[in-house]
Amino acid sequence: MFALSLRRRPGTSLIELLVVIAIIATLSSLMLVAVNQVRVAAKRLECISNLRQLGIAAHVYENTMNVLPTENGTNRSLFRALLPYVEASSVEAQLQQGVAGAEKAAIKVYLCPARRNPQGAPGKRDYGYALSANNGSIFDTPGGASLIGITSSNGAANTLLLSHVWMDPKSYASGGPAGSDTGWIALENSRTINNTAKEDRDPGAGTSHMGSPHPNAMPAVFADGHTTNVPYSYPQWAEIWNWTNTTPVTIP
Q1: What CA–CA distance (Å, rounded) separates 224 from 52?
Q2: Distance between CA atoms of residues 184 and 122, nearest Å
Q3: 220 partner at 20 to 30 Å CA-CA among 100, 109, 121, 164?
Q4: pLDDT tens-digit profile of 179-191?
Q5: What is the distance of C-alpha 9 from the center of its chain?
Q6: What is the reported pLDDT for 146?
Q7: How far apart are CA 166 and CA 249, in angstroms?
Q8: How far apart are CA 192 and CA 242, in angstroms?
Q9: What is the pLDDT of residues 17-51, one digit of tens each?
Q10: Would you call 218 helix, strand, or coil by DSSP?
Q11: Residues 6+ apart with CB under 8 A from 219
C-alpha cells in the first residue's frame, strides 16, 4: 500500500503581513500627498483665471471710460465699478434701485478659491491693491489712470494691477477682522504695502499686508493683462505697484 503524503503550503507570517500593511500605508500616504498637491495647483490656476478675468474687465472699463476705475475721490468701490464688466450688470441695477441685500451678491470672480467659495462668502472679495507713494497705484489715481499713461511711464507689463489682500486662515469661514473684510461694496480694498507681501499663514503678517493663501508666491495680474506668480520675497513690491515709478524693475 502507498502512504499518502500531504504537503502543507507555507502560510503568511506575521512579519510578512506587517510589511504588506506598511507598504500599503506608505502608498496611501504618498497618494494623499499627491492628491493634495493637485488640489493646491488647481486652486492656484483657478485663482489666476479669476485675476485674468478681472484684468480683462478693467481693460474693457478703460476702453469705455477712457480711464481705469479709481477709488480716489469717489464713493464707488473698484469692485462695484467693475460689476457690469464681470457679467453682473443685474447686481448694479439692483443697487441703483435700492434692492435690499444687493450688496450681498456672491460674485465668484471676486473670490480666491483657495480661501472660500461664493456660497460661504456672500458679498465678499479676496483681491485688492497696495497703496504706493504719490497716488501711484493704478486704482488710487485721482481721476483714474489711463493705459496710455501707464505704458509710457513705468510700463504696463511692469505695473501691478490687482492681487490679494492678506487674511488670517482662521477667518476664511467667518470673514476677517472689522474693516478688513467688509465686502466688495466698500472702499476697503487697498493695503499699505510696507515693501512686502505675506502668505496667509505667515505669523508675521497682518491686515495691513497684501497676501494670499498660495504657498511660495502670490498670483497677480499686471496692467497689460498678463498674470504671474510673484514670490513673497520679491524685493521690488513697492516699485511694481507704482505706475509712475522710474526705478528699473525685474519682473520674476
Answers
A1: 10
A2: 10
A3: 121
A4: 678 899 999 899 9
A5: 61
A6: 95
A7: 24
A8: 12
A9: 777 787 877 776 666 655 566 576 889 999 999 99
A10: strand
A11: 44, 47, 48, 51, 163, 164, 212, 227, 228, 229, 230
